[in-house]
């Protein structure tokens, strides 16, 4: 197995576009794991925040976003090491 912290540096992950997000919370509700990977900010004034340690990269959040505000990005180190 690999060192867990490297996962966040190498593996693709969902990212919220703050300009598109309408703060509806659909992404949080769509997260299938008990310990949610997303957390709604206080007062729903800001987009949800990811805890990538909890994220299983299923992208249910991206599928359920009505404004397509969630994209998938590969971290910089991942792009350097994994040529596609």
Keywords:
4 helices, Alpha-Beta Plaits, two-stranded antiparallel sheet, two-stranded antiparallel ribbon, alpha+beta, 84 residues
How would you describe this structure to a colleague?
This protein has 84 residues and is of the alpha+beta class. It has one domain (4-81): Alpha-Beta Plaits. It has 4 helices and 4 strands, in the order αβαββαβα. It has helices spanning 4-10, 26-30, 60-64, 76-81, and strands at 13-16, 38-39, 49-50, 70-73. The chain has a two-stranded antiparallel sheet. It has a two-stranded antiparallel ribbon with strand order 2-3. 17% of the residues are buried. The model has no long low-confidence stretch (mean pLDDT 87).
Q: Secondary-structure element sequence?
A: HEHEEHEH
Q: Which CATH C-level class is it?
A: Alpha Beta
Structural class: alpha+beta
Q: Any idea how many domains?
A: 1
What radius of gyration results from the CA coordinates? 13 Å
Give the number of DSSP strands.
4
| Unreliable spans | none
Global mean pLDDT: 87
Counting DSSP H or I runs of 4 or more residues, the number of helices is 4
């Amino acid at each position: 197995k690999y060192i867990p912290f490297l996962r966040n540096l190498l593996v693709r992950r969902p990212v919220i576009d703050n300009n598109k997000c309408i703060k509806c919370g659909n992404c949080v509700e769509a997260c299938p794991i008990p310990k949610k990977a997303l957390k709604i900010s206080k007062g729903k004034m800001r987009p949800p925040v990811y805890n990538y340690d909890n994220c299983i990269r299923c992208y249910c959040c991206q599928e359920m976003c009505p404004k397509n505000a969630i994209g998938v990005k590969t971290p910089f180190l991942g792009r350097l090491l994994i040529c596609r």
